[in-house]
Amino acid sequence: MENYENKISIKAWAEEDRPREKLSGQGRRALTDAELIAILIGSGSRTETAVELSKRILHHYENDLNKLGKASIAELCKFKGIGEAKAISIIAALEVGRRRNDSESQAPDFINSSKDGYNIMRRHLMDLNHEEFWIILLGRSQKVLGKELISKGGLTATVCDPKIIFLSAIQYQASGIILVHNHPSGNLKASHEDISLTRNLINAGRMLDIKIFDHLIITDNGYTSLGDADLM
Fold it and tell me: Do 35 and 17 meet the contact criterion of CB atoms below 8 Å apart?
């Protein structure tokens, strides 16, 4: 077994191998994911360097930054050498990256397809470990009036109260609604409960002259439209 006491600290590395110096001299694209995270961490411990600690964390998450992006502060703090401050730095940096990716494609003002609805809502529902139920409120010509979080739930379900949905629609003077919720499991298939809820809300909306245009199920890997699938 390797003797940790004989490990070489980052300060003793060749300058071109140190993450900060490497970024400064060669540019950010020259760094590995572990080296970038090591810069966020700042320092390792007596038994391993920041880069080694970063590699260990990435290995735990199968070297998948999307999976690491879902980690909570408590989960990251389970790694020896990671305290709350370092965990927060990692989470904040990954969230900034996610938001930058989302901002590259501006959300539409009008919804003409299920893809438009997905582009509006994906930033709110990706990387979550619990279910959330949202609505997009639409006016004439399907202009986006706003979006509202209706409820939060557990890993597999969330409670959706029709009274809250239609109260929001009335307050916005909306003529239509798109229902949206996520599946943290990654399963894009609509459940029996998803389909039944959609049809019940469609019937209720008819009485108020508020149309349910679609129901989107969003995961980290894409979305399903019940409207496109003729399940409404």
Answer: no
Angle 85-11-62 from CA coordinates, rounded to 5°:
55
Give the tens place of pLDDT for each residue, 14-30.
Answer: 444 588 888 888 887 78
Distances (CA, A) of 152 to 16, 54, 128, 182, 193: 47, 32, 11, 10, 16
Give ∠ CA 98-101-148 in degrees, rounded to 5.
70
SS3 29: helix
Residues paired with 147 in a beta bridge: 136
Q: Measured between alpha carbons, how far is 151 from 181 in angstroms, rounded to an integer?
A: 10
- Give residue 106's Cα distance to chain centre: 17
d(CA 10, CA 34): 13
CA atoms within 13 A on the CB side of 83: 5
- Is residue 4's pLDDT more than 50? no
86 CB neighbour count, 10 Å cutoff: 21
Residue 45's pLDDT is 78
Question: What is the Cα–Cα distance from 185 to 75, expressed in whole angstroms?
Answer: 18
Judge whether 50 and 41 are in contact, CB under 8 Å: yes
